[in-house]
Amino acid sequence: MQEKESDILLDIKNLHTYFFTDNGVVKSVDGVDIILKKGSTLGIVGESGSGKSVTALSVMNLLTGTKGKIVEGNIHLDGKDIVNISEEEKRKLRGGDIAMIFQEPMTSLNPVLKIGDQISEAIIEHFKTSKKEALDKTIEILKKISIPRAEKIVNEYPFQLSGGMRQRIMIAMALVCNPKVLIADEPTTALDVTIQAQILELMNELKKIVGTSVLFITHDLGVIAEICDEVVVMYCGRVVESGDVLSIFKKPRHPYTEGLLKSIPKLGEHVEILESIPGNVPNPKYMPKGCKFEPRCSKSFDKCREEEPPFFTYSNGQKSRCWLCKKEYGGEV
After folding, report:
1. CA within 13 Å, CB half, 71
2. Which of 35, 167, 259, 298 is disulfide-compatible with 277, CB 3.0–4.6 A?
3. How far apart (Å, rounded) are the C-alpha atoms in residues 106 and 111?
4. pLDDT at 333
């Protein structure tokens, strides 16, 4: 199913992000295509090391000063290429058109600055307002995300707040400039289940109010089911399956997605041992020749070891990078 150009907000095409280390080149993101529609929430899921966070850092242009570099591909925001722009344009983009919520707020917030000063900084930078106006807008956004005693919290430091409250502060910082795209990199991982549910509910509400499109990165498929419209499954720096959430959960087409779904405990179902995917993610420097998932796949055959599969697209728009899909089409493999 072809997307209408007017519906596409963020378009990542053939993205290759490599890290050039003393021990060789690590292909963290190796040919990724992702489309984020206007007003929607797209989930990116996969094990640690699959390239989820590096994809987000590439979009945010936060690789400067690291050994990472975008070596190929394009990232378009509202039709504009944001890879080949000046450093000044990148600074305006970050926190303005694109904002990010990180996994651990305690390491993202400055411990020696008051909460109000940290949020106000973005407002002053992007809107060139006075400190007084920025503080008023800060209090306004804190109230919008249901933070109690907002007037007092702006004068407190991160260590004085709970984990859930700090994560709400990070959401406020991300949304204060009304970004077009909000990237949430595992924002609920370090929180207990009750606070996690509250944060997800808050993000759902704010998406409707602010109108921001969300790129939600997680390893938790339960979270994907709760908050996302569409999902992209990544493995070894590649997208192996994509589609709307209902289709992926109802009938996964890739053995990796199937394995991830089977590892989720189900209410009312008692099992002694949860199913798991055997083996480990391969070393990025020593990738298998054919399908990258083949060494861990119980359904693999000779062609999987010899040649990496292309994407096969189903009538519902679901895509899967697996030779088994060709069999389902009635083709020879």
Report:
1. 14
2. 259
3. 8
4. 47
Q: 130 phi and psi, to 5 degrees?
A: -80, 165
Q: In terms of pLDDT, which residue wins out, 174 or 270?
A: 174
Average pLDDT, the chain: 89
Cα angle, residue 187 at apex, residues 185 and 192 outer, rounded to 5°? 150
Angle (deg, nearest 10), helices 163-175 and 193-210 = 20
SS3 6: helix
**Alpha carbon of 328 to those of 215, 290, 301, 333: distances in Å?**
31, 20, 15, 11
DSSP character at residue 160: G
Q: Is the pLDDT of residue 106 over 80?
A: no
Instruction: Tell the residue number behind the tokens 């020879």, with chain if given.
Output: 332
Conformational region of residue 73, where left means phi above 0, alpha means psi within -120 to 50, and beta covers everything else:
left
Helices (H), the chain: 52-59, 87-93, 105-108, 115-127, 131-144, 150-153, 163-175, 193-210, 221-227, 245-250, 255-262, 302-306, 323-328
pLDDT 10s digits, 40-97: 999 999 998 899 999 999 999 898 878 999 999 999 999 999 998 988 898 888 888 9
Which DSSP letter does residue 234 get? E
